[in-house]
Design brief:
The chain has 19 helices and 13 strands. It has helices at about 1-25, 50, 55-70, 90-100, 110-115, 130-145, 145-175, 180-195, 205-220, 230-235, 240-265, 275-280, 290-320, 325-335, 350-355, 360-370, 405, 420-425, 460-475; strands at about 75-80, 80-85, 180, 280, 285-290, 380, 385-390, 390-395, 400, 475-480, 490, 495-500, 505-510.
Length: about 500
Amino acid sequence: MDTFFIILITTCISFTLIFLFNFFVFSNSKTKKKLPPGPFTFPFIGNLPLLINKSILDIELIIQKLISKYGPIITLKIGTTTSIFISSHSLAYHALIQQGAFCSDRPLALPTNHILSSDDRSINTASCGPSWRVLRSKLRINMLHPSLIKSRSKSRADWALNILVQKLIHKSESESEVILLDHIKHAIFSLLAYMCFGDKLDDIQIDQIKDVQHRALLATVQYKILDIFPRAGRLIFRNKWKELIALRKEVENVFIPLIQARIRYKDGEIVSYVDTLLNLELPEEKRKLTNKEIVSLCAEFLGAASDTTITALQWTMSCLVKYPAIQEKLYKEIAIARKSEEENREKLITEEDIRKLSYLKAVILESLRMHPPSHFLLPHRVTKEMELNGYALPKNAIIYFMVREMGLDPNMWEDPMEFKPERFLMDDHREGEMFDITGRREIKMMPFGVGRRVCPGYDFAMFHLEYFVANLIWCFEWKPVEGDDVDLTEEIDFTFTMKNPLRARISLRMI
């Protein structure tokens, strides 16, 4: 009891000091402007009573209601942290493009991040700096640049796609329906593991990676309680800390042998992600990466690319099953690109074919608009007090950009709840340019983020979404299971995925 009393008193004193510090700092703000509006804030705990014991979906609904009341930019105090939520396209453009230098950093690393990512050695969550820039540019240049899709990624994608198609053919011959998610997970993980470790891994290895990777991603949410008063929490939640450390060790036990195997044997014709990390030197520390740091970067590579791609692919195929007229229109476009429905029937769709498929691109974009894998961008931290829409955003405030809200905004999109790929064909592009998903000119939607923190693999992701969807429609006709309408209800896993995974009847189109 004495120990608990000491912890309680210490906690109260800490909150009081932080509150007084924030009060005096913000009251002496140079701009003298107010924070964006928001609900009543309790001393010390802020708006936590609004959010406590709520799921992410519930929190999103609460924020939507607050935005309808206060406007497209609101403030919530989460504990002592100032959190800004933005649902406006124009405000997002002003913040991320025009003032990106002030709000492109990440929140300071939390204690759980230090365990899960080797002291926050990652690209997505690390603060801006020389090491972050080197890691990000190496990933983009050596693995994810559009020019590499032809020279390196295409053969790997062919291999993974063939695995997927053969499994689906087998399922279609032996069973009346398929659950697509199981098969695309295996194919995408096979592709990414090949890119990461430079080797075609067997099914057992892929399943190992899938399992430990998924549990590690979920841990970033499940163990958040450990980030609240971590020193006291190491006593109160010591079993949870042990679980987290054991999970990290399990990740290392799966990944390090694959990294060491790559060190022993390198295929000169195949460049893997591990290869690009082995000789990389951290500019601030003048040293090479440790094996544990390479594990963290490989886990990030697999996690960031797999869950989002798998989720986006399932949503797109689900919409094509739900709306057969759109599926048929897409199939006819593919057939025309192949000159006729009978010519080259047994050959897969190529990159050259994909360049001709404008409706395919529109289908992918419409799916990303309505069903972005993440409803919020990863949080951004303000590094220097800035002004936005006449409001003050203080230093160290955390900004959350509401991706889903922007994609469904009726002021931007006509009939936003309707799945209409044609809207991207009729868009007013400059001299035939495709829709600018990077938001450089204007933000209409941003499933990959925009500005300095835009996803480095957005070109790579779009190519593989187009490549897999085109071939799945070319090879098979997809129909809903009899008596089972396609359910587009969402649930949160690591991404916003389908509550009920797609079940479909497929028939082989190929002769």
